[in-house]
């Protein structure tokens, strides 16, 4: 038996009903053949529920909804434009100088997941302990994925609420992770160092975040623009001088030509915003 079992009830109000009792606080789902089941809702459900599926991960069950007619986010223009720098130290830094930290649980659960995977590898095939270890891995996988998605939704919503234009670096996450391990013919350089960074790249879930941001922005009529990330971290926002030496440390930026000093990530976000606005004017 597999550990990911999914059953789909094809139509809401037929064999299944979301929020079947609607008695105020407690949300329930009605499933034909099962009855009314209490559920814990992670996010507010918007639109019309189209399908309800029930999915098992390890020992826990989840209700997954797909919705139609999700209302557009009706937001007034703010006049705000923003550049974001996506980093390792902070999840993202804005051109206004706001540093959003990486989700705190993310790293802890990623460590737990890695430990659970090591534990699973040590268990004897076919044993009861192996089955339990596998359940634990599946459960943690799901937890990491749900937290990442939740964090992406909240962050993206905050960004689109307050800004008409959001510029970000066009990241090629797939390529970045590939380049560290390299291939058999051409092993990656600095594999150990890069895999640390790549892990953070994956943990931070930028790919997930950018997808969520794009769909929220579309629904709110906001503009999201991806810019070429080359030189955004080493160009001086004051005089335009571009040099590797401008970036003193991960956080420190001092222009070797004019002496302008600032936070490296804020400088990056400012350059991303400028490049984004230039693209939109072009
Ligand atoms: Zn300068």
UniProtKB/TrEMBL annotation:
Annotated organism of origin: Dactylosporangium cerinum
Protein name (record): RNA-guided endonuclease InsQ/TnpB family protein
Keywords assigned: DNA recombination, DNA-binding, Endonuclease, Hydrolase, Nuclease, Transposition
Domain Cas12f1-like TNB: 206-272
Family named by the database record: In the N-terminal section; belongs to the transposase 2 family.
InterPro entries (UniProt xref): Cas12f1-like_TNB (IPR010095), RNA-guided_DNA_endo/Transpos (IPR051399), Transposase (IPR001959)
Domain of life (superkingdom): Bacteria
Domain named Probable transposase IS891/IS1136/IS1341: residues: 73-179
UniProt keyword DNA-binding, yes or no: yes
GO MF assignments: endonuclease activity
């Amino acid at each position: 038996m597999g550990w990911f079992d999914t059953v789909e009830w094809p139509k809401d109000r037929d064999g299944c009903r979301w929020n079947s009792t609607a008695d105020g606080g407690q949300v329930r789902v009605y499933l034909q053949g099962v009855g009314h089941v209490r559920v814990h809702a992670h996010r507010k459900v918007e639109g019309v529920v189209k399908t309800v599926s029930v999915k098992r991960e390890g020992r826990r069950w989840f209700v997954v909804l797909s919705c139609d007619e999700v209302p557009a986010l009706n937001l007034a223009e703010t006049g705000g434009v923003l550049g974001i720098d996506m980093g390792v130290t902070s999840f993202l830094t804005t051109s206004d100088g706001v540093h959003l930290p990486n989700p705190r649980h993310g790293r802890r659960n990623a460590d737990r997941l890695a430990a659970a995977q090591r534990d699973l590898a040590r268990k004897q095939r076919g044993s009861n302990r192996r089955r339990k270890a596998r359940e634990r891995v599946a459960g943690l996988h799901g937890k990491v994925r749900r937290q990442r998605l939740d964090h992406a939704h909240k962050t993206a919503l905050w960004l689109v609420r307050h800004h008409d234009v959001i510029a970000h670096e066009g990241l090629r996450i797939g390529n970045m992770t590939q380049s560290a391990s390299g291939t058999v013919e051409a092993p990656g350089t600095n594999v150990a160092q890069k895999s640390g960074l790549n892990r953070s790249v994956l943990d931070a879930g930028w790919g997930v975040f950018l997808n969520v941001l794009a769909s929220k922005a579309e629904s709110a009529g906001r503009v999201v623009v991806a810019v070429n990330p080359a030189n955004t971290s080493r160009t001086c926002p004051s005089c335009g001088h571009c040099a590797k030496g401008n970036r003193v440390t991960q956080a420190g930026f001092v222009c070797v030509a004019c002496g302008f000093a600032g936070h490296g990530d804020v400088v990056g976000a400012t350059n991303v915003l400028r490049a984004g606005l230039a693209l939109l004017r072009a």
